[in-house]
Specification:
Number of helices: 3
Number of domains: 2
Strand order of the largest sheet: 1-2-3
Shape: globular
CATH architecture of the largest domain: 2-Layer Sandwich
Number of strands: 6
Order of helices and strands: EEEHEEHHE
């Protein structure tokens, strides 16, 4: 008897609330106000699809990293990151060409430094979001012993 392939589904709902604004929701989670970004005739101070796209890669990078850290039993002191997506005209369309993610990771053991660096190298291959897009994801890291 063959097993079914692993498959997960993620459902969201979007309601237009006027102008170029909406509310995105998913069962059991807080709603998020979304809008078209100002550079495309939208609104400031509201999450745009572009913000959400870049942050999706950033969050997936973190959760993938944390999965490996837990699996390898590394004592992590802190993790912070900043991400920047570069959207530019490619041919006749705007698209994200690159997403840069800068990690700052604090550890307490020098012997964990190489293991952490190895994990960082594996993230783009194992992060579901990075593996699902054609945008190049570049991870820059600073590993600090404290």
């Amino acid at each position: 008897m063959k097993g079914q392939p692993v498959q997960y589904r993620y459902v969201t709902h979007l309601k237009w609330i006027g102008e170029k604004k909406g509310i995105i929701s998913s069962e059991g989670k807080p709603d998020i106000n979304v809008a078209c970004p100002p550079e495309f005739g939208g609104h400031e101070k509201i999450w745009s699809p572009e913000d959400l796209f870049v942050s999706s890669v950033e969050v997936c990078t973190m959760t993938t990293f944390l999965w490996f850290v837990q699996k390898e039993r590394i004592r992590l002191k802190s993790y912070t990151s900043t991400a920047e997506g570069v959207a530019e005209l490619v041919g006749k369309n705007f698209q994200f060409s690159t997403i840069h993610i800068w990690l700052k990771i604090e550890i307490s053991s020098e012997q964990d430094r190489k293991r952490v660096a190895s994990i960082i190298e594996r993230i783009p291959r194992f992060c579901l979001i990075s593996a699902s897009i054609t945008t190049e994801v570049e991870i820059h890291s600073e590993i600090v012993l404290t």
